[in-house]
Design goal:
Elements (H helix, E strand, L loop, with lengths): L31 H25 L29 H25 L4
């Protein structure tokens, strides 16, 4: 008690206990549920690490390889067939005719000698 630097010496065999769970020769036993839980925790930790890296380094671009992340515009794609209503076609023809008449008037105004 007065000298803690002196170690404890015991020679009685009953004073020692044996730990059967942490001995080097004990087989490691892991339950299936524990293994699944460990895998889940490690996956969540990896996802959190990726989120932290993405947050701390915005200069790294976003990469997406999932096809569901991309959309396709079926109306403005180059291979989309042009669909025009009859009314729209008549309106377009009328506008083009008016534009041609205005052009003819402008040419006649700018070149009266012709």
């Amino acid at each position: 008690y007065m000298h803690p630097e002196v170690g404890v010496t015991a020679t009685d065999g009953a004073a020692f206990g044996r730990n059967y769970f942490s001995r080097p020769s004990a087989p490691e036993v892991e339950d299936v549920e524990e293994a699944e839980e460990r895998a889940l925790v490690l996956a969540e930790a990896a996802a959190l690490k990726k989120s932290a890296v993405d947050y701390m380094h915005p200069e790294v671009g976003v990469t997406a390889t999932d096809g569901a992340a991309f959309g396709r515009n079926y109306f403005s794609r180059p291979s989309a067939p042009e669909v025009e209503d009859v009314e729209e076609a008549e309106e377009r023809a009328l506008v083009l005719a008016e534009a041609a008449a205005l052009k003819k008037s402008a040419v006649d105004y700018m070149h009266p000698e012709v």
